[in-house]
Every structure is written in C-alpha cells, then in structure tokens.
Amino acid sequence: MRGNDTLAHGMPRRATGSIESYRWKDARTVTWRLRVRAYGRRHRLDLGTNHEGWNRERAQVQLERIMGQVERGTWEPPGEEAVEADTDETIHLTVSRWWQRKKRELTPNGRANYRWQVDYVLADLAQIPTAELTTQRVDEFRDWLSRRGLSPTSVNMVLSRLAQVLDDAVEYGVCDLNVARGRRRRLRQRKPARNFIEPDMVVDLLDAAGEWEASLPAHQRYGRRALLALLCLAGPRISEAIAADRGDFDLAAGRWRIPAAKTDAGERHVELTMLLADELREHVAARGIGVGHPMWLTWKGGRLNPSNIRTRLLRSSLGPGKRQTRSKGTKPKRPKGVVERVNERRAQEGKMLLPERVTPHTLRRTFASMALMAGRDPRWVMGQLGHSDARLTLSVYAQVMQRQRVDGDLVWRLMRFSDEAKTVDSRQAATLDRARVGV
Q1: Which region, left, alpha or beta, applies to residue 432 given φ > 0 means left and ψ of -120 to 50 means alpha?
Q2: Residues ≥6 apart with Cβ < 8 Å to 302
Q3: Which residues pair with 175 in a beta bridge?
Q4: pLDDT the model gives residue 438
C-alpha cells in the first residue's frame, strides 16, 4: 500500500468531509473552512468569516452540497479560487441554505408560519434542479396548491416564500432569474372584510365578560373583562397582551411598556385611558397579582393560550342552521362565548348585533377606530399600535371619516386620559363633528 489515501484492496478511500473553525485573537472573528478527502487527496476549502455570514449551519449546507457532488463524480477540487456555485443544486438544497439563515431572524410564531409554507414547496419541488425551474413549472405548482385545497391567500403566501428562496439562489449565482416573482404568478384574492365593533358594543362586551367571570368558580377566573378592555382600549396584538407582566404596567401613571423581547415590533410605550387603567387596577387587586407575575394567569399559574382567547372567550354563535348536538337531559358541551352572550342580549333589546366573527384583531381595529373618533392624531395611533406601515391606520381612518353619527360622549368616556377634561371640549367636539360629516 502506497501512502495513506489508498486501502489495501487498491480502492480509493471513501470520501469524507468535516467542518473546522478558527477563532481570531480579537475574540470576535471566526473563520470557517472545510476539510474534504476525495479522489485520493485531502483538500482544504476556506469559506469565510462570521462577519461575512458564515456559521456552522451554513458551512454544513456547503459541505453537504460538495459531498453530493463528490458522490456523483462531478466535483472539481478548487485551487486558489473560491468554491463556485453548484449548477446541479436542487430546490431542497437551496431551501435548506435559505432556511438556516432566515429562521434565526424570526420569532417562534414566525418560524412556525414560514415552516408550513416551506413544507409545501419541498413537497412538490424538492428534487428539481434550481437552475432548471421554469415559469411554467411555478404555475403548475400554483395549480397543485389550489387542488390541495389552499385558499388563494395561502397559495400566494407559499409562492412568496418560494420567491424569497429563489432571491437567495440568484444572489449565489445558482440561477439567473427568479421565476416565482411577478403578479401573474399569483392568484387573485378577494379583499378581506376589515371590521370593528361600535363603542356601545364595547361596553356590552365588557359587561358580559364581567358577568360571565363572576358566575364561574374562583379557579376558572383569569380576568376576562380586564383582558378584553386591554384589547379594545389599547389595541395590542394578542401575543403582546398575554405576554404582559404586572411589572410592565405603571397603573398610577397610566402607561404600559411592551419590551422588545416580547414582540417583533421593538419596545414601545402604550398610554392607558383612564377607564382602562381603572379596569386593570381592579383586576390586579382582585387577583392579587404581584410584580414579576403574568397579568393573566391560568389556574395552573401559566399564561393564557392565544387560541383559547379566539375560540373560547370570543366565540360567536354556531351560525345559521347549525345546532349543537347533545344527549337529552345533559348540559351543552361548550359554554357560550362572550360574543354570543352579547348578541343574545342585544337581539332581545332590538339592537344591531356584533359581527359574526370577532377576533383579537377586530378589537385592535376597534381601538384604532375609537382613537380616531376621539380626534387622536393618526401618527399617534400608529405609535400606539406599534406600526411602521400606515396602511391599517389609514384604512380605519377612511372608514371613520365616512361615519354620519358618532356618540361623542361615549367615545370620550372610553378613550379619555386622566389629564383630560371629563367632557368633550370645543376643539374635540369640532373634530368629532368633522368625523360625522366626513370632512
């Protein structure tokens, strides 16, 4: 046997590869490289530093790509030049490289949302060479998604994710054109209904939640009325509301600090209306919530689940023509949600019913609508909501401006801050008058 690169049988050793890293003396820079044994020789491939975006995950993707080429016999060991892009790279490898980088930028909810979209891409396109993906094949993929039962909105979300992946491939030189870009690749979407509830509905919603809470055993109470008051009168995302701790609130000053770690919108400070601050103080006193504890506790001491808020607390009726099945003499299997309770009462009083579907985002828009009815500056409303994009605020503003009648006194009672007058002054009354006539 001659040398260490040949086995006793005269056959080349099996190709192997490993990842190496070298940390510089500045303690901030790390160089990543690969060691590859192939074709009877050892090769060292310098990749780059962490400042250039290299890390163990990205190096692993590069190593897997090279070992795949070696196995197919198409790998050409580089000399002094950098490793060139693999024109045989499949969609699976392109997605893997993109996902290793992208997932670190996302929140847990964002990763879960992206992941199901990526899974659909891999289910149909994984083995196609990235450079050979065509516009026609993308359109066939779009039709395949539709046949799987996805809505136009979901189909377009998956296509957007594919387009992001292919942007990465274009930058790496794997393909010359992103064939998933362009409006013609997308399905036409029906514009969703963006609703909010009226100020008097907010009052009924809070009253119904409080009565429901009072009728329950102590271990089933978590502060339904206070939680809905926060959603309606401060406009947070549901994830921000249930992540709130007692120490995040200064109820004396009427302020709520939402830490950056609890939202992808960055840290912001939300002003609490006088009515909301009173609701929260009563909730804290009744539940005995101390600093460092969640504002809304389950009976086990944990945090509430967002899906329970949507499907249990805000549940509306089953819909026309639908009845809940139950055995004779037994109680219904599910309690009524707060929207259903409110609608039953309002139906008896001959009042307009709440929308069939009320979500936490409906209440977020409700806050925006009432803030604008109260004459707040749209830029302030955007700041309260944690929005850098003005589209939601402006769409609500357009709806508010079309209103012919606004109960200014009720809006002011709900949206007034502690340092403002008890009644609507002349300046605020003029603003509300303009909202009524759409000026």
Answers
A1: alpha
A2: 294
A3: none
A4: 45
437, burial (CB in 10 Å: exposed 0-12, middle 13-18, buried 19+): exposed
Residue 122 covered by a domain:
yes
- Reported for 37-45, long-range contacts at CB under 8 A and 24+ positions apart, including other chains, are 37/5, 37/13, 38/70, 38/75, 38/77, 39/12, 39/15, 39/70, 39/77, 40/5, 40/6, 40/12, 40/13, 41/5, 41/77, 42/5, 43/77, 43/78, 45/78, 45/83
- Segment (H or E) for 36: strand 30-38
Q: Which residue has the tokens 């502060």?
A: 223
pLDDT digit string (tens) for 85-117? 445 688 998 898 899 888 888 878 788 889 999
Average pLDDT of the residues in 2-7: 40
The confidence band for 421, taking pLDDT boundaries of 50, 70 and 90, is confident
Coil, strand, or helix at residue 233?
A: helix
Name the token pair of 74. Answer: 């198409």
Range of the domain at 171: 85-192
- Tokens of residue 307, six digits: 């899906």
Same domain as 120, residue 243: no
Residues 6+ apart with CB under 8 A from 375: 427, 428, 431, 432, 435
Query: Is residue 17 classed as helix, strand or coil in its secondary structure?
Result: strand
Specify the pTM.
0.62
Are 234 and 165 members of one domain?
A: no
Cβ contact 57:100 at 8 Å = yes
Residue 88 and residue 69 in contact, taking contact as beta carbons nearer than 8 Å: yes
> DSSP string of 155-211?
HHHHHHHHHHHHHHHHHTTS-SS-TT-SGGGSPP-PPPP-----HHHHHHHHHHHHH
Mean pLDDT of 115-124: 94
Measured CA to CA in angstroms, residue 228 lies from 207, 280, 308, 352, 360 at distances of: 10, 11, 13, 20, 9
Strands laid side by side in the 249-250 sheet = 249-250, 255-258, 268-271
What are the residues whose beta carbons fall under 8 Å from the beta carbon of 407, sequence distance 6 or more? 199, 200
188, 155: one domain: yes
Within this chain, do residues 413 and 294 fall inside the same structural domain, yes or no?
Answer: yes
Q: Look-up: residue for tokens 């993109």?
A: 98
- Tokens 């990842």 found at: 19
Amino acid (one-letter) located at 222: Y
